[in-house]
Amino acid sequence: MKKTERDAARALREKGLSMNEIAKQLNVSKASVSLWVRDVVLTKGQREKLNAQGFSVDAIEKRRIKRIENTRQRHRTVIESAKEDITGLSERELFLVGVALYWGEGGKTGKGMARVANADPAVIRFMMRFFREICSVPEERFRGHVHTFSHLNASEAERYWSDVSGISIKQFYKTYSKPSAASKHKKDTLPYGTFQIYVCDTELFLRIKGWIESLSEIGSQNLKPLV
Question: Using CA atoms, how far apart are residues 157 and 168, in angstroms rounded to an integer?
């Protein structure tokens, strides 16, 4: 049903009707119409006609942009205020956050290897700090593995993740390039693919599993059921 309404809205917009007129004619919200027809380009004559009728396209677009900017500013204010709640990390806090991140993002199976995969460079940097400062992992124990798409530059991705992690490319496994015909003509949201940190240490892997089990047990204590 929505597709039928959207197609009808676009057809009416292409004829030069205002969004108010389209919303009334189709009995849908103006917000929906605005979304459906946002990329429909009006002719100069259609714009002049709407302006003459009081539906100033330019004014509406300016208000829309202003509304988006005001929302962005309000969101940024909340974010900046929240950032003040965290001003640093103690060694204990770094330990706990690192364990929690591994719990969510790290490998839980496989003997002899602790591993974490992510596309967010901030997560990779944080986990490298956890491994180095908390787990005292020697540099030679680290391995890196890049997963990317075949149409992207694998060498560039390797250099990028080496800079992010501080792991030498010489310690990387062979990069995995996945064919992706569908992504060739789309905006690349992951231009450097994803990165996996590997630590070749059975004892560390088991210790991390123990830390996670402890967090799980402590976090589940004294939970009261909702009435």
Answer: 13
Per-residue pLDDT of the chain (227 residues; tens, 9 = 90+): 577 888 998 999 999 888 888 999 899 988 888 889 888 888 888 887 877 776 555 666 677 778 888 888 899 899 999 989 998 899 999 999 999 999 999 998 877 899 999 999 999 999 999 999 999 999 999 999 999 988 889 999 999 999 999 999 999 999 998 876 555 544 567 889 999 999 999 999 999 999 999 999 998 886 666 55
**Global pTM value:** 0.68
Are 57 and 47 spatial neighbours (Cβ–Cβ below 8 Å)?
yes
Decide if 140 contacts 109 (C-beta within 8 A). Answer: no
Quote the CA–CA distance of 111 and 91 in Å, as a whole number.
Answer: 28
Q: Is the dihedral of CA 180, 183, 185, 191 positive or negative?
A: negative
